[in-house]
Amino acid sequence: MSTTFPPRAPLPHRRRGAVPQLTAAAATAVPSHAAAGPAGRAVPAVPTVSARAAVPVPVSAPTTVRVDRITVLALLLVAALTGGMLVAGRPGEEALLAALVFLVAVHGAVFCLRAVTVTGFLAGAAGAALVLTGPVSLVVALVVAGALALVCGVAPAWRRVEVWQSGRTALAGAGPSQAGRLWRADRVGAAFLVLSFPPAMAAFGEFFIAWSTSR
């Protein structure tokens, strides 16, 4: 018993090195990720602006503030102020009070308007000296610290520093932040902690010493 197979169709002849020809359906087919160009050619799709990764733009550094010069100038002014008051016959306690208030005002202004954290600690130290000398209570010192912290909440210098730090963080590959906003509660809270910590610790130390000696 023999089996008869149907004749096989001859394969198309192709020369060596020839490029295979596409059919009409395959030639006009366009991939899903490409756009159809002229004559049925596939043109790679160009990503839109929203699909592109946002490239962080470097931000210029804020203006440098020489704290040493500010401190020396403040001390010279304090020396002139106290010396003038002593020459005029004012008591030494009043001259000391005026000198400490002047230091709080100068360093507090630099802290709020120029965003220099070191001057905030110096203003807090002067406030602690006012609390220890007696003419200013802790409540008054905390109220002054709160007022200066509110000024820091809307000061343009602090926004510029935050934008600069956010730009450096974005260049490092971190996520987005809320820098540059007109008002930030965390900025106010941090400024209040810097300004109020020295007076609070001074008042607590004075209270603890008085309590331990009275037992």
| Structural classification | mainly alpha
Shape annotation = globular
Strand order in the sheet with the most strands: 1-2
SSE succession = HEEHHHHHH
Provide the descriptors you would attach to this structure in a database record.
single chain, 215 residues, mainly alpha, two-stranded antiparallel ribbon, 7 helices, 3% strand
Short description:
The protein is an all-alpha fold and 215 residues long.
What can you tell me about this protein's structure?
The protein is mostly helical and 215 residues long. It has a domain at 67-213. 60% of the residues lie in helices and 3% in strands. It contains 7 helices and 2 strands, in the order H-E-E-H-H-H-H-H-H. It has helices at residues 24-28, 67-87, 92-114, 117-133, 138-154, 156-171, 185-213, and strands at 34-36, 42-44. It has a two-stranded antiparallel sheet with strand order 1-2. Helix 2 runs antiparallel to helix 3, helix 3 (92-114) packs antiparallel against helix 4 and helix 4 packs parallel to helix 7. It is globular. The N and C termini lie far apart (124 Å). 20% of the residues are buried. Mean pLDDT is 75; it is low at 30-35 and 46-58.
SSE topology:
Blueprint: H1 24-28, E1 34-36, E2 42-44, H2 67-87, H3 92-114, H4 117-133, H5 138-154, H6 156-171, H7 185-213
Antiparallel strand pairs: 1-2
